[in-house]
Design goal:
alpha/beta; 10-stranded mixed sheet; globular; 10 helices; binds iron/sulfur cluster; TIM Barrel; disordered N terminus; about 350 residues; single chain; Alpha-Beta Plaits
């Protein structure tokens, strides 16, 4: 669900190396939790208080700042780990799982072999560098030893993308960006599927609303209607990804999405359908017919098209997760775009 135009907060590898020399670790989940939680939680009592038995930290795999395509104005985007949609065209496959597998960026690696000291024998050099993630315990020691990696720095040779922290700590980290983006911007919960971590998502939304920050939630519409009902009071805008079909065998989700839209429209939340430009899926006539039926039924007149992500295969290469569909040709993308343009929708495209 990420867009190329988002300027991610994570640092460049070079800057990261500098920081690595200045302090032992940044971004470690426990470090963040211990340093930030107390101060913030005593300052603000969340409007949403989760059941203590349900209380949990939040798992995220990235934060994007100054995004102009994830809701109105300039947005701070929190990418939640974990997804249930299983789209073939997913370009963040490492976000689907409960925790991201170890990412290996061959372009940043200098082949020094220091990660070979992993006691679980994840890294082998026979003769090229191979990474057997099935053996990985996510201890992070190879990142400590690698001269081209820093914890929580995207673009490092080795990267454990999932960070766990308290919601209060997360909010404290994003708050300065929300102040910079001003009243016209806000915070967008993306992923993955943010509401799969329901307690954490609702707590973050509640903290934002307590500060008067505009909130948007990106969703596939494939969670229980009750989850949407619970979140609705804290959501100003739903970025609704129309997954009328998803997955390897393309199960249809029209009926469930219809029920969720019915629920959301009844509580008068603003809904912006977002449709990815995926040739062979979203230019199928039965799919278009289903989309139009839903758009008409709920008077959803404005539709946002998400362009094909040119870096679609990046995280497949880095995570070792097999690609499910080959990248489409430019002609196929253009043909899909034209088909949508012919539909007489109030259409715009994210750049
Ligand atoms: S994170 Fe730990 S277990 Fe996984 S490859 Fe690195 S050193 Fe080995
Ligand atoms: S320690 Fe880092 S730079 Fe060295 S081989 Fe391993 S991944 Fe590459």
């Amino acid at each position: 669900m990420k867009n190329n135009d988002v300027i991610c907060w994570v640092l460049s590898p070079e800057f990261g190396m500098l920081i690595k020399r200045c302090r032992n670790r940044i971004g470690d989940a426990n470090h963040l939790k211990n340093s930030n939680t107390t101060a913030l939680s005593t300052m603000h009592t969340p409007l949403y208080t989760s059941d203590p038995r349900d209380s949990e930290d939040v798992r995220i795999f990235d934060i994007g700042v100054f995004s102009k395509c994830d809701g109105p104005g300039v947005r701070t985007v929190v990418y939640f780990q974990g997804c249930n949609a299983d789209c073939d065209w997913c370009h963040s496959p490492h976000s689907r799982l409960h925790r991201s597998p170890l990412l290996y960026n061959v372009n940043a690696c200098i082949g020094c072999g220091r990660c070979g000291s992993c006691e679980n024998a994840v890294h082998s050099f026979t003769p090229t560098h191979r990474v057997d993630r099935s053996l990985c315990k996510r201890c992070g020691m190879c990142i400590e030893r690698c001269p081209r990696s820093t914890h929580n720095v995207k673009g490092s040779a080795l990267h454990l993308a999932t960070t766990t922290m308290s919601v209060a700590s997360l909010f404290e980290q994003i708050a300065p960006y929300t102040r910079l983006s001003g009243a016209s911007g806000g915070v967008t919960l993306s992923g993955g599927e943010a509401l799969l971590q329901r307690s954490a998502a609702l707590e973050l939304l509640s903290l934002c609303k307590q500060r008067g920050i505009h909130t948007a939630v990106e969703t596939s519409g494939l969670l229980p209607t009750e989850t949407y009902r619970a979140a609705a009071p804290w959501v100003d805008l739903w970025l609704f990804g129309m997954r009328v079909i998803t997955g390897e065998n393309h199960p249809r989700h029209d009926t469930h999405i219809d029920a969720v839209l019915s629920e959301l429209s009844s509580v008068s939340a603003r809904i912006l359908p977002r449709i990815p430009l995926i040739p062979t899926f979203f230019d199928r006539e039965d799919v278009i017919e289903s989309l139009l039926r839903l758009l008409n039924r709920y008077n959803l007149e404005e539709v946002c098209l998400n362009p094909w992500n040119r870096d679609y295969d990046l995280f497949y290469k880095q995570s070792g997760i097999p690609l499910r569909m080959p990248p489409p040709t430019d002609d196929a993308i253009e043909s899909c775009r034209k088909r949508f343009a012919s539909l007489n929708l109030n259409l715009y495209e994210n750049n």
